[in-house]
Design brief:
Helix 3 packs parallel to helix 4 (122-139). By secondary structure, the chain is an alpha+beta fold. The longest helix is centred in the middle third of the chain and has 18 residues, at 122-139. The chain has nine helices and 14 strands. The chain folds into three domains: 2-51, no CATH class; 60-168, 2-Layer Sandwich (60s Ribosomal Protein L30, Chain: A); 177-342, Alpha-Beta Complex (Phosphoribosyl-aminoimidazole Synthetase, Chain A, domain 2). The two termini are 29 Å apart. The radius of gyration is 20 Å and the shape is globular. Pfam families: AIRS, AIRS_C. Belongs to the HypE family.
Length: 355
């Protein structure tokens, strides 16, 4: 390994710390925050060169004979594999379905690839496969191709799953982070931080008086209802790794707008707030698997909220802020005391291995 590292031109990379100062991967590189972005921008993209796509969203749009196709892929390494409200199986299906949905696409087909550790109980793999099948049927997608690999005992951690998906973007739909504009209302479809705390409480054996269950769910039906409302919908994100903080920072940077949140409007349920207080976590950086954030023209906010609240996955939707021309690329929150605080891009991941 040392010889291979010596042959790599580390000094040729353009990344600041931690890539330049460490020749090794750390957990933060997979957290969906600033370290993940640096890894992609300063290592992968220069290496890929002209073969890389220009748009770095969770979903790529391709055109085939005039049809707009959405394509996305994701890998899931959640630990434990089974948690309150779900498992790595339904998480894998719903996660890829939602990545497609954030472009406005109607998901159609998914691939499934498994990396299994030698010695894993077949009964556990069966449970995961059954959960994937049930989630696919509920989302109305087909599992059309896949692959299976096995690694030595100790070379993995039970089951890892990769899913890739293809969907069709309806004519006239144009949803992208770069379309957010000053004056846009910032909406969220429901309580935040639930999935991350559900997985963590199960992993660490924590109890908070009531069971916190993952919010994993497919969101393409909600997105279809939002589009059908006729509201001028600009941007969508499902705030998974890095939570709401990462998603809003990505949109703010892509669109060159500032985002102002009203802290008292953030829908953080008491168990999540209590758990974050106990563990020293920021709820805005905790992952979600069944929620979305949206930027919509301010005059259409009420219409879109009504459409969201009429759908089962958006019953608790609310407005949490506004896009502003000030401090472009930054997210700030107005506190209950009248002050403000910067909501920065997470560096890595507060809670690793939760998706």
């Amino acid at each position: 390994m040392t010889g291979a590292l010596e042959r790599v031109d580390v000094e040729g990379w353009t990344c600041p710390v931690p890539l330049r100062d460490s020749p090794y991967v750390v957990m933060g590189h997979g957290g969906g925050g600033a370290m993940s972005a640096e890894l992609v921008e300063h290592l992968f993209l220069p290496a890929f060169g002209d073969a890389a796509a220009g748009d770095l969203g969770d979903c790529a749009e391709l055109r085939l004979d005039g049809v707009r196709l959405a394509f996305s892929t994701d890998s899931f390494v959640v630990k434990p594999m089974f948690f309150p409200g779900g498992s790595i199986g339904d998480l894998a299906v719903n996660g890829t379905v939602n990545d497609l949905a954030m472009s406005g696409a109607v998901p159609l087909v998914l691939s499934t690839a498994f990396i299994l550790q030698e010695g894993t109980a077949l009964a556990e793999i069966g449970r995961i496969a059954q959960a994937m099948g049930a989630a696919a049927r509920a989302a109305g997608v087909r599992l059309v191709t896949g692959d299976t690999k096995v690694v030595d005992s100790g070379g993995g951690d039970g089951v890892y799953v990769n899913t890739a998906g293809i969907g069709v973007v309806p004519s006239g739909v144009r949803i992208a982070a770069s379309r957010a504009r000053p004056g846009d209302a910032v909406l969220v479809s429901g309580d935040i931080g639930v999935h991350g705390i559900a997985v963590t409480s199960c992993r660490e054996g924590l109890e908070f008086g009531t069971e916190v269950r993952s919010d994993t769910a497919p969101l393409h039906g909600l997105v279809a209802a939002m589009i059908a409302s006729g509201a001028d919908l600009h941007a969508l994100r499902d705030p998974t790794r890095g939570g709401v903080a990462a998603s809003l920072n990505e949109i703010a940077k892509a669109a060159g707008v500032g985002v102002e949140l009203v802290e008292r409007e953030l829908p953080i349920p008491p168990p999540v707030r209590d758990a974050c207080g106990l563990l020293g976590l920021d709820p805005l950086q905790v992952a979600n698997e069944g929620k979305l954030v949206a930027m919509v023209a301010g005059e259409d906010a009420d219409r879109l909220l009504a459409a969201m609240r009429a759908h089962p996955e958006g019953r608790a939707a609310r407005r949490i802020g506004t896009c502003v021309p000030e401090h472009p690329g930054m997210v700030v929150a107005r506190t209950a005391l009248g002050g403000s605080r910067v909501i920065g891009m997470p560096l890595g991941e507060q809670l690793p291995r939760i998706c």
